[in-house]
Amino acid sequence: MSASKVQTNVDLDKERIKCNFNIQELTYIIDGGKHKTLQRRQIENNVFTSGKHEDQVPDECLSLKERYENAVRKSLDYGDLVRNELLAITGLENFGTPILRRTADAFFKEISPLLLHLGMFVPTIMGQCTAEQQAKWLPLALNLEIYGTYAQTELGHGTFIRGLETTATYDSSTEEFVLHTPTLTAYKWWGGGLGKTANHCIVVAQLYTKGKCYGVHTFIVQIRDAETHEPLPGIKVGEIGPKMGFNTADNGYLGFDHYRIPRENMCMKNAQVLKDGTYMKLGNAKLTYGTMVFVRVTLVSDSAFNLAKAATIAVRYSAVRRQSEAKPGAPEPQVLDYPTQQHKLFICISSALAMQFTANWLWKTFTKYLSEMKKGNVDNLPELHALSSCLKAVSTSDAAAYIEQCRLACGGHGYMTSSRLPHIYSFVVATRTYEGDYTVLLLQTARFLIKAWEQAESGVNLTPTVSYLSRACKVKNTWENSSEGIIRSFEAVAAGKIAHCVKNIREKMQNGLDLDEAWLLTTNLLVSAAEAHCRAVLLRVYHEEAKRLTEESSLNVKEVVDQLVQLYLTYWSLERTGDLLRYTSISENNIHQLEKKYEELLAAIRPNAVGLVDAFDICDEILQSTLGAYDGRVYERLMEEALKTPLNSESVNPAFHKYLKPYRQAKL
Amino acid sequence: MTLKKVNPDLEKERSTCTFNIEELTNLLDTGAHCTAERRAVEDKVFSVKELKDEIPDEFLSHKERYENAIRKSVFLHKVLQETGVKRGVYNRSDKSDFRTTYYSIFKDGSPFMLQYSMFVPTILGQGDSEQVELWYKRALNMEIIGTYAQTELGHGTFIRGLETEAVYDEKTEEFILNSPSLSSYKWWPGGLGHTTNYCIVMAQLKIKGKPYGMQPFIVQIRDEETHMPLPGVKVGEIGAKLAFNTVNNGFLGFEHVRIPRRHMLMRFSQVSKDGKFTSSANPKLAYGTMVMVRVTIVNSAATYLSRAVTIAIRYSAVRHQSKLKQNEPEPQILDYVTQQHKLFIGIATSHAYMFCSYWLWDVYVMYQKEQNVGNFDRLPELHALACCLKVISSSDCTGLVEKCRMSCGGHGFMMSSNLPQLYGISTATCTYEGENTVMLLQTARALVKAWELGSRGRPFSPTMSYFAEKNVPSKWDSSLEGILNAFQKVSIGKLSSSVSSLQEYTKSGLSAEDAWNKASVQLIGAAEAWGRAVVLSIYKSEIERYGQTVSPALKSVLFDLVELYYVHLTLEKMGDLLLYTQLSEKDVVSLRKKYEDLLEKIRPNAIGLVDAFDYRDEVLNSTLGSYDGFAYERLMTEAMKSPLNAEPVNQSFHKYIKPLMKGKL
Fold first, then answer.
1. Residues facing residue A259 across a β-bridge
2. Which of A33, A425, B1, B133 is deepest in the core (most CB within 10 A)?
3. How confident is the model at residue B661 (pLDDT cuts 50, 70, 90)?
4. What's the CATH code, domain A1-31+290-632?
5. Residue A182, SS3?
């Protein structure tokens, strides 16, 4: 791509010569096979040769309104370019390849206002509508004849869905639902594309029929006129204003004043309201979890991709940037040669890989369970739910922290938006909160774990990801300095923490507290136990998937992937010495060995560092970073971007004549 | 939406507070008269109509925001002059200046910032009396506006690596400034882009081909009348950043620009007409300003955190969510222990660093007096302290600001909460004025040196005196004194094992530099551990000192926070403590219990504690954190200010969306 056009920075050239493994081979593994890489590259080529992703003026220099308008234009250009891929989407299963999400990053630094159309509106119709309803709505949506979004969160209520206040009251005399927003706090808030863009919306509301409340249900609601785009009577809709990121997402608010929709607009796959107002539950209500789980699974893979971007930028920049004198008289070394810098960055490379492998593994698990669910088997749902909850929480949280670490590792230049690192951070850190806040999700996983522990105590067989509990509640862990030994120790830590929670809750209940109170007072421990469980799962999955995926790889690829896995295991052991000292037999001597091994791993990975980030194969158009481009022309790009700032198009800004000069002459 | 005076939840919270809020405010301000003085200035500044924004800055383009910031800077300067606020503008003279708040009229900084904080102080500090006479007056009257340019595109922390040159031409008695490469362009100075017409430039001095190191030069870069860049000067804005977007950070390059000989600031070093270089500079003198700037950062970090935690705690008192118990209304989220765990440490940490910064300021003032009579004894310790506290305060506080932001859920992502801006400004402290890792390594150098001298019998300076203590294993003790002792043991353990690694590496044949580099990950751990021991010790001793004069009620709540800080850190650093002290599993369990008890004890005072920071709504600038607690009303009011909401249908519908829907695009 752009690499061949301009001369590459000599330092990067040298790094690429040093690399001892086949980069392409690793790229295929990360993408999930050669054919997937080729397919991805072909789409990327098609999209980027159009040139429609390019901006003359950096988005950050525009007003919020101009940025929105630019994003709408680009959304439609992008929609045109990938129309075929869009039309190929027929079910949740098709969302497995993140290609469209990747290429979209070249168009939007801060998300398209149409993101939720594809990300939530379409999947909800697929997941919660009857076949008949899908036949009506899907073609309209996929052909972009209507634009939809998804409105659940309200100004006053987020994670706690039962607390939502918007009502949908059935009126059997007209066979309509009456949607209403009773208070300010009941206003829908956040829906992407809701402000000015969407004309339809999935609305989550409390269903009332025959005077009884049946809890939250979903409805398809038209909110704007198809011709004039004016909000329909009874609809109050608008934009919620600037945010830390997502500024082109057109997040909106929405209120209803006794607004009527036809009965058929309720999503009726899992529950129905008959014409006479009779409420009927169909199948298993748990099936609605499907979409939620789906979103969490995709967030794990998004975390991996965004962390890979940040690591690519920071590692390439660190190979180009030179600083200080390590030895008197010698030239300034590349900052990548400092072990403190390697300590900050190599774990990011390894974590990105860990999350990518885990995301692929989770996706496989999800689609397997999804097909079982379609056959009516929901036995595995609790495990899937617990697993996707904690993996979403921990991977978004890890990714956000490591992305910020990459940004800080780039010193002042990481602070420039042209580095793209601030954008990547604000995007990922939002995912830590939305679709289930970090703390809340870990507490949900904790509930599952406590139950599993009780089952283990009573000798019931456990589902795969918690089966270690059966072993742990019988045998005490002994530290062993091997991969399997480390993983088992992390399982022992998780088990120890879960056991501790159970003990704590039981004690508090014996002292007269009820379960809710005992649970509340144990929550900080429960969060930590769920995190420990998730960490153990990540360690195991990463280790096993890496082994499986490189089974037929060349020796050097095998070796470098194994080094990254070892780095991950060692790094986390050293991070968690407190837990390991408490729950395993690890000794001070073992810890010193780990420290030594960690230093050796950093040194071993160093020559392959640039090759490893090259293997993520993220092209310049998607990275959009002055610091991270393939050619390493860091300073040139920083200056080129600076010169695009409209402030620089005039030598003297009008503010000089308007304010500074008159003030100096005491005329203001 | 009729506004009642205060949200009833907050009203209730304020009634449970057990101490006198005003008393704590006075303590934070370093005196009741300081509180009164601060409030008088706030009353003046915040009543100026021109300093308010009709449309929030975040809606505007980068250029519009800059122009708005210039407008406000000019009006602010005018008000401050009328108010007679001189102290603190050019030279910090008193630690109560730390509590100055009027800069919060800029959410993202003022383009005049460096005029006050660097340009004028450098003239005062580095100019000779004649130069001060000439330039200081002009700057005071705003006849000239200046900034300070040191960092270059290719070089930051490592000052000797800077490339900009100033070559003396004795024929014309001028210096010729030149930027030999792209990477030598000055990059970052605030106000440099389009605002300032003068600039202090740090450049490598060369006379007759011989280098004389970095020297400061005062350089005119724009015409005083037309404001056009002068010939040979290439200057402009560096573009958008994570924050500080109205500061007008700029770049600057020179193409053989000539300046008169007397434009080199000559207090310490001089170049005579015939090109003779003389210098009376004690290199140690340069450290003074650096130390002062870093002490200021310790305080700023604490200040940003105190604002974030005020916002988050007030919001957590008005936000209700989920059910704790069946059939009860949704509780305030501040009642969740997980939320208390996230937030109360924010109050304690901002106290810890605020009081440490006051203490460090006093040490600095003492040093300045000694330095004036040629006594530099205190410098190595002071330098290490300033480096290390700058690092741990900036990284701790930034982490906690972000934690506060995330604890507000989605609404913390709204710019109108002001939490994203606080994070953006706070996180910059981790990289500017000495990147944190580099600072820790400098600290480590001082520690290793002290350790080695100590092993040869030299006495340790006060904050390192515990290095001399014999490391005898003793039973774990959960009192404050006991915990402090334990952290000192960790510090000793990490430092001594770093030193043995260094010795081992050199013995195995590595050069001193390679050994240092190889051990650097351990060394930063040792430096951090020393900083922890210092902060624990100073925070405690300062509160003990204040405790002698404050009321019993306030004393008790101040010590609750000290204890929370101690126990929290003990649980955070459990791995180190298990390794280096006699901490046992049983102790950990009882410390956890103690921690939970402390959260419960602090809970009724949470709102009172953040009220005591005494930030007016104009300072907080936050929909979520205002004193009255009407978070939802304010969120909606702010949203309605969006220019996008001024029209029901945006033009892009007709231009792009509709044609597409109709298949006509």
1. A179
2. A425
3. confident
4. 1.20.140.10
5. coil
The mean per-residue pLDDT over the stretch B106-132 comes to: 91
CATH label, A146-283, candidates 3.40.30.10, 1.10.3720.10, 3.40.50.300, 2.40.110.10: 2.40.110.10
Cβ–Cβ of B650/A325 closer than 8 Å? no
- CA-to-CA distance for B663 and B665, rounded, in angstroms? 6
CA torsion A358→A359→A364→A369, rounded to 10°? 100
Within a domain: residue B81?
yes
Q: Report CB contact under 8 Å: A433, B410.
A: yes
Per the DSSP assignment, residues forming a β-bridge with A178 are A169, A260
| B374: number of Cβ within 10 Å | 7
Under the banding of pLDDT at 50, 70 and 90, the label for residue A371 is confident
Domain count across chain B: 2
Within 8 A by CB and 6+ apart from B199, the residues are B119, B146, B147, B148, B149, B189, B192, B218, B219, B221, B252
Torsion of CA A659, A662, A663, A664, to 10 degrees: 130
Q: Which of B642, B647, B665 is the best substitution to test chain A (most A C-beta atoms within 10 A)?
A: B642
Q: Tell whether B90 and B39 lie within a shared domain.
A: yes
Q: Looking at A435, A491, A531, A621, which residue is catalytic? A: A435
Alpha-carbon gap: A553 to the closest alpha carbon of chain B (Å): 33
Query: Would the CA dihedral through A476, A482, A484, A488 be positive or negative?
Result: positive
- What's the pTM value of the predicted model, to 2 decimals? 0.95
Whether the CB-CB separation of A87 and A138 falls below 8 Å is answered with no
Query: Same domain, yes or no, for B104 and B175?
Result: no
Whether residue A640 is predicted with pLDDT greater than 50 in this model: the reply is yes
Coil vs helix vs strand at A463? coil
Tokens 């901490």 correspond to what residue? B583
Tens-place pLDDT, residues A264-305: 999 999 899 999 999 999 866 666 667 778 888 889 999 999
Contact A524 B645 (CB under 8 A): no
Q: What is the pLDDT of residues B274-305, one digit of tens each?
A: 999 999 877 777 778 788 889 999 999 999 99
Task: Give B493-560 as a DSSP string.
Answer: HHHHHHHHHHHHHHHTT--HHHHHHHTHHHHHHHHHHHHHHHHHHHHHHHHHHHHTTS-HHHHHHHHH
Range of the structural domain that residue B54 is part of: 29-110
pLDDT digits over A162-201, tens only?
Answer: 899 999 999 999 999 999 999 999 999 999 999 999 999 9
Helices (H), A10-114: 10-18, 23-31, 34-49, 64-81, 83-87, 99-107
Select the residue from A142, A660, A661, A663 to test the B interface by mutation, using most B Cβ atoms within 10 A.
Answer: A660
Q: How far apart are CA A54 and CA A353, in angstroms?
A: 29
Binding site for FAD: residue ranges of A?
153, 192
Interface of B with A in 272-331 (CB under 8 A): 319-326, 330
Chain-centre distance for alpha carbon A115: 14
Least confident stretch, A131-140, B78-87, B124-133, B194-203: B78-87
Pairs of CB atoms within 8 A across A/B: 358
Structural domain spans, chain A: 1-31+290-632, 146-283, 636-668
CB pair distance less than 8 Å for B321 and A163:
yes
The pLDDT tens digits for A190-202 are 999 999 999 999 9
Is B433 tagged catalytic? yes
Residue B235 within a domain? yes
Q: B612: which DSSP letter?
A: T
- Closest chain A residue to the Cα of B570, Cα to Cα: A578
Rounded-to-integer distance, Cα B441 and Cα B524, Å = 6
Q: Are residues B160 and B82 in the same domain?
A: no
What's the CA gap between A120 and A201, in Å, rounded?
10
Burial (Cβ within 10 Å: 0-12, 13-18, ≥19) of residue B52: exposed
Which helix (DSSP H) or strand (DSSP E) does residue B138 occupy?
A: helix B129-140
